[in-house]
Write a structure and sequence with these properties.
Layout (H helix, E strand, L loop, with lengths): L20 E2 L8 H16 L3 H13 L6 E2 L12 E4 L3 H11 L8 E4 L2 H9 L3 E5 L5 E6 L4 E2 L2 H4 L10 E4 L3 H9 L10 E4 L6 H8 L9 E7 L2 E4 L7 E4 L3 E6 L10 H20 L6 E3 L2 H25 L3 H5 L2 H19 L8 H8 L2 H12 L6 H7 L10 H11 L4 H22 L34
Parallel strand pairs: 3-4, 3-8, 4-7, 5-12, 8-9, 9-10, 13-14
Antiparallel strand pairs: 1-2, 5-6, 10-13, 11-12
Helix pairs in contact: 1-2, 9-11, 9-14, 9-16, 15-16
């Protein structure tokens, strides 16, 4: 029977089918079996030899002293197909377009914390057009106008409805404020798919917003290797190079809650599996569920590259090719990479997966990262675009994740901690510069060649790329 309001009911009585109960250490013997055992015992007193031995064995089987568990079936929960998407980056727009084209799904609802995005959405016809890499239009899909979820949403007097399926794909600095405004619409019936560039956002959400394990949402971690480019001056249309949506369903680990762990995880799995099934209905997304170890193998290489190339680019305010061709910078690159690889190689979940460990610890992995750095040529990091607008790049879910894991393991993380401080210092300095409205060029920030601060035009088409909301 579907239990729509199950999570708001008081804990079930001890006789409920929901609770997994342990019975006594001796298995209860049916009445007929007891009579049988008594007759066997009577025969054992008068007979000898093999017959008596067989009777004794039968008696022992009937009265074996074991720990038995009455396993009750996990109740079915009511599931919903409505999907909400927080964010306007390329992955968010692509997911909205792909899921809106599935005829049997309800219309996807975009949620925004920025009024400007709602205005631009109307100006572009409330639709997303996908192009191939040659610029040939593939499909156009209308999507409803975004709904604002800023402070006004959080201050509603009436309780808003529960949001059951949420995809989060936005600036990392906007994830916590956006979900904080939706806390009254999120509980353990909600499944959140985090499509952020790194890892660690789930832990941060649990520490800052969803502190109660009994009521926190279910999580699915996402790594998208779809690639996109902007089309001319349009904000929401995209050039698309197909990839995959790699998903990992995170098991619940409830502590000190009324539900036993087995039942809690069984209920949460129903919600997570349902959302993965909904996302799989779109062939364009190309959803692939993965176990944790394999998911890490796919997610970590890009995180490691960002933790090196993007952080150094922001700290120095330089292009990627200036990193590669400077000896002293590459010496720092190697030391930072060595520390990061040591953290990855120490992760307990990878200890039994030697093939994955060999991939990260082999001599070829640093060469692959250097080759990727060379392929960037004279491009600037997208993090520089964020810093120039005084927005925080995703440093907390790249280097910050490695620092978090290193602290758990009690190993060194000095260099990763230092680059986090330096990147955050650059963002804070840029924020003060813009708050003071210092004319760029009149009072240089750090140096004239620095592409983050002063000495540069206020709007640089190469540096000041459009940031998706």
């Amino acid at each position: 029977m579907p239990l729509d309001n199950f999570f708001y009911k008081p804990p079930p009585p001890p006789t409920s089918d929901i609770i997994v109960r342990r019975v006594g250490t001796t298995v209860p013997v049916p009445e007929s079996a007891s009579q049988l055992a008594a007759e066997a015992e009577a025969e054992a007193e008068t007979e000898a030899g093999a017959e008596a031995e067989a009777v004794a064995e039968a008696k022992a089987e009937l009265n074996v002293d074991v720990e038995a568990e009455t396993v009750r079936p996990i109740p079915r929960v009511k599931l919903y197909n409505k999907i909400h998407i927080i964010g306007f980056d390329a992955n968010a727009r692509f997911a909205a377009q792909a899921l809106s084209s599935v005829p049997k799904l309800p219309p996807v609802q975009l949620l925004t914390h920025n009024i400007r995005s709602m205005k631009m959405w109307r100006e572009e016809g409330q639709a997303i057009t996908m192009y191939n890499y040659k610029g040939v239009p593939l499909s156009t899909q209308a999507v409803p106008c975004p709904e604002y979820v800023g402070r006004q949403f959080a201050q509603r007097w009436t309780r808003p409805p529960i949001l059951h399926n949420i995809i989060v794909s936005t600036l990392t600095g906007a994830v916590i404020p956006s979900l904080a405004a939706l806390t009254h619409s999120i509980d353990r019936r909600t499944t959140i798919c985090l499509a952020t560039p790194g890892l660690g956002m789930m832990e941060e959400l649990n520490e800052t917003i969803f502190k109660d394990p009994a009521s926190r949402p279910n999580y699915i971690l996402c790594h998208s290797d779809h690639r996109f480019e902007r089309v001319s001056s349009y904000q929401y249309s995209l050039k698309h190079i197909p990839g995959k949506f790699l998903l990992h369903s995170v098991p619940r680990d409830d502590e000190d809650v009324d539900l036993d762990r087995r039942t809690s995880e069984g209920l949460g799995r129903q919600h997570r599996d349902h959302m993965i099934k909904l996302l799989s209905k779109s062939g364009d997304l190309a959803v692939v569920p993965l176990v944790w170890e394999v998911f890490l193998r796919q997610k970590l290489p890009g995180m490691i590259f960002m933790s090196l190339a993007d952080t150094i680019s922001v700290i120095l305010g330089c292009r990627f090719d200036q990193i590669r061709t400077t000896k002293h910078i590459m010496e720092f690159w190697d030391r930072l990479l060595e520390e990061t690889i040591h953290i990855v190689a120490s992760l307990p979940e990878l200890r039994e997966h030697l093939d994955i460990l060999d991939f990260f610890t082999s001599e070829s992995f640093p060469k692959k990262l250097r080759r990727k750095l060379e392929l960037q040529r004279s491009e600037y990091s997208q993090w520089i675009s964020l810093i120039r607008k005084a927005k925080m790049p995703p440093i907390d879910v790249t280097n910050g994740y490695f620092v978090r894991r290193a602290r758990e393991l009690g190993i060194r993380h000095t260099l990763n901690s230092q680059v986090i401080s330096l990147v955050k210092g650059r963002q804070a300095g840029r924020y003060r510069e813009l708050q003071m409205d210092i004319p760029l060029g009149l009072q240089p920030f750090v140096q004239d060649l620095d592409k983050i601060g002063g000495g540069q035009p206020r709007d640089d088409p190469i540096l000041d790329k459009e940031i998706d909301f």
